[in-house]
Specification:
The chain is 67% helix and 0% strand. By secondary structure, the protein is mostly helical. The chain has a single domain, classed as 434 Repressor (Amino-terminal Domain) (Orthogonal Bundle), CATH 1.10.260.40. Helix 1 crosses helix 3 and helix 2 crosses helix 4. The N and C termini lie far apart (24 Å).
Length: 73
């Protein structure tokens, strides 16, 4: 059975949003840099999506961060 850690997903989403805003880029710009759909960024930031490791790597790279720093909660 798959366990989804809702609170942790929300924390990661909030961290992504915070970093994106600090870098003054839009969700659309982040999506373009990470080569993912803008709607996926929106869902992740709200904690409504369980991203794959590949997506998290892409977002971390787009934000010029290490993945470990992105998911450190």
């Amino acid at each position: 059975m798959e366990r989804i850690y809702i609170k942790e997903l929300e924390k990661v989403g909030k961290k992504i949003r915070k970093m994106r805003i600090e870098q003054k880029i839009t969700q659309k710009e982040l999506a373009g840099k990470a080569e993912i759909d803008e709607r996926t960024v929106q869902k992740i930031e709200k904690g409504d999506y369980n991203p794959t490791l590949n997506i998290l790597f892409a977002i971390a790279d787009a934000l010029d961060m290490e993945l470990s720093d992105l998911v450190k909660i």
